[in-house]
Amino acid sequence: MRSTARRVAAVLAAPALTLSVLAATSSPASAAVDPGPATAAGTWLVGQLDDGLLLSPYVDSEGNPYPDFGASIDAALSLHEVGAPAPVVGGISDAVAARVDEYVTGDAAGDPDSTYAGATAKAAVLAQTAGDDPTSFGGVDLIQSLEGVVDTEGATNGRIVDVSTFGDYANTLGQSFAAQALDTAGSDLADPVTDFLLDQQCAAGFFRQSFAAIDAADQTCDGSGGQPDVDATSLAVQSLRSQLDDTDVAGHVADAVAWLKTAQNANGSFGADASLPNANANSTGLAGYALFLSGETEAAQRAAAWLRAHQATNVAHCVYYDAADTGSLAYDNASLKAAQAGPMDDQLRYTAQRATAQALPALRAAQTGPGDPQALFAAEYVKAGGKKPVGVVQAAPGEALCAMLGEQSVLGYANAAGEGHLPVLIPTKTGTSRVEVANADRTFGTAEIHALGAKKVRFALEKTVAAGKKQLVAVRGLAPGESLSIVVHWPKSGSKQTSFVTAVQANDQGRFTHSFKVPRQPGKGRVVVTGQFGNRKNSKSFTVTR
Fold first, then answer.
1. In the beta sheet, which residues pair with residue 515?
2. What residues form DSSP beta bridges with 413?
3. What residues are paired with 465 via a beta bridge?
4. Per-residue pLDDT for the chain (546 aa), expressed as one digit of tens each?
5. I need a labelling partner for 473 at 20 to 30 A (CA). Which of 93, 172, 309, 431 fits?
6. 394: left (phi over 0), alpha (psi -120 to 50) or beta
7. What is the CA radius of gyration of the chain?
8. Nearest Cα to 422, choosing from 449, 441, 442?
9. What pTM, to 2 d.p., does this model score?
10. How far apart are CA 71 and CA 142, in angstroms?
11. What is d(CA 72, CA 75) in angstroms, rounded to the nearest whole number?
12. CA separation for the pair 114, 165 (Å, rounded)
């Protein structure tokens, strides 16, 4: 059934959706926050819900897809952060509550009397965010269950631990949710859980994702070789924001934020860790929003620009994405390209769902352009044929742009500085191409590209010149103002072998005249005239007589 999805999608798409704007502009030239990307992503995400849940592409023995409870909770939390109406978030919370046992325990999957610590903590945060009672969520007291999986003695005091026959897979991500949930609930275990979370931060500022072995004497990040993890660091920053009145917590968060800034790539993106170093939307979204919440406006804006440039967006005649996929965030460059090949298949859509569910709030830092966008092409002439980049300036960082020439429609994205480069295929013959450039709002400019095709340059000279007299070369038929060069090859026995005339231009009638004195030694000379490009040339010989 998709009735619930359609209903809440309609609510989200309505004008009632308001995005909170907390980020200040980074400079007087910066523009205001643009709610469009987050609205489009949120609308698409809600449309993916099936009775309040995101479904995985994997099916049970009866062919029914398994719900992805974790991604569904991510979606609810993200939609809440961008100001989605309460019924949207509440609908997801209700759907998770109805099947909460399947998420927080493995009882139905052959793991009796189990409690999954991270899932329990995440579900508790969902209940609190949606305004539900976490002590009676689908009949489960999530706070009591969570407290029951917290170690309270020795080096592991405050550590969450899975109760499962399959082993303990609890990690810093779940610990972050646990610290948030227990602090919000006013639990006596909030402090030790928070302290253990802070122990997972190394001196460099990052948080690691995996805990030390449960029996290790040293449970700290520095004491057991912790490795940097962007996702764990970002989630810790977000989860600890309710405890920033504690100066110790605030100091740890400041160190984490400082480290995140050093981990950001020049294009605004983030990779996850050493095993997943490539830029991806999940890590960029988590880090970007952590930076946004911490007041690191410029860094958050650059992350939002990278995400926006990985959002499926159709502009003008650049219809690269299936209508059902527009608004979604692609996981990485490869996923974005795959989405352009046709409607997303189940696996690609699932990847986009998970990416959008985590990255959506970071789009709150998306900016409009600093002014009216402009299309431009600097070169006066280009060689005909091949692709030439049409430039755009003052676009919104990361926004989709479309260059149109004839039947061509070239989609591109502005970078974090609001600059775009759209490679357009130019005809192979001499002529002027007028390329229209559009963004999602309108066609905002036209760039003229003057191309010069292959040509046998016309010029005249004297076929014979007396030794020591002047030769006159008269070039005609060039483009107005076209650059040209003249090379004179003298008789081999002469006093000179070669002379050059370069960096000259034809007049506005495409003409240029040059005279030179020939040597006193008789023999054959040759003149080579080359236009602005190597495929526009001609050569002629002359004789020097006594």
1. 472
2. 400
3. 544
4. 233 343 344 344 433 344 343 333 333 344 699 999 999 999 999 999 999 999 999 998 899 999 999 999 999 999 999 999 999 999 999 999 999 999 999 998 899 999 999 999 999 999 999 999 999 999 999 999 999 999 999 999 999 999 999 999 999 999 999 999 999 999 999 999 999 999 999 999 999 999 999 999 999 999 988 999 999 999 999 999 999 999 999 999 999 999 999 999 999 999 988 888 899 999 999 999 999 999 999 999 999 999 999 999 999 999 999 999 999 999 999 999 999 999 999 999 999 999 999 999 999 999 999 889 999 988 899 999 999 999 999 999 999 999 999 999 999 999 999 999 999 999 999 999 999 999 999 999 999 999 999 999 999 999 999 998 999 999 999 999 999 999 998 877 545 567 888 779 999 999 999 999 988 888 899 999 999 999 999 999 999 998
5. 431
6. left
7. 33
8. 449
9. 0.87
10. 19
11. 5
12. 7
Q: How far is CA 103 from the centre of its chain?
A: 31
| Rounded Cα gap, residues 67 and 98, in angstroms | 12
Beta bridge partner(s), residue 49 = none
Check residue 213 and report its DSSP letter. P
SS3 417: coil
* Cα–Cα dist 44/4, whole Å: 14
Q: Which amino acid is present at 259?
A: W
Q: Which domains does the chain have, with CATH numbers?
A: 1-74+264-366 (no CATH), 99-246 (no CATH), 374-452 (2.60.40.10), 455-545 (2.60.40.730)
Helices (H), 16-68: 36-47
**What is the torsion angle, in degrees rounded to the nearest 10, for the CA atoms of residue 110, residue 112, residue 116 and residue 120?**
110
- Nearest to residue 390, comparing CAs of 363, 409, 368? 409
* DSSP 8-state class, residue 280: -
| Nearest-5° Cα angle at 205, 204 to 206 | 105
Distance CA 509, CA 308 (A): 48
Q: Which residues contact 128 (CB under 8 A, 6 or more apart)?
A: 134, 181, 184, 185
Q: Rounded to whole angstroms, how far apart are CA atoms 432 and 410?
A: 18
Helix (H, G, I), strand (E, B) or coil at 543: strand
Triad 379, 380, 381: Cα angle to 5°: 90
For residue 441, what are the contacts with CB-CB under 8 A and spacing of at least 6? none
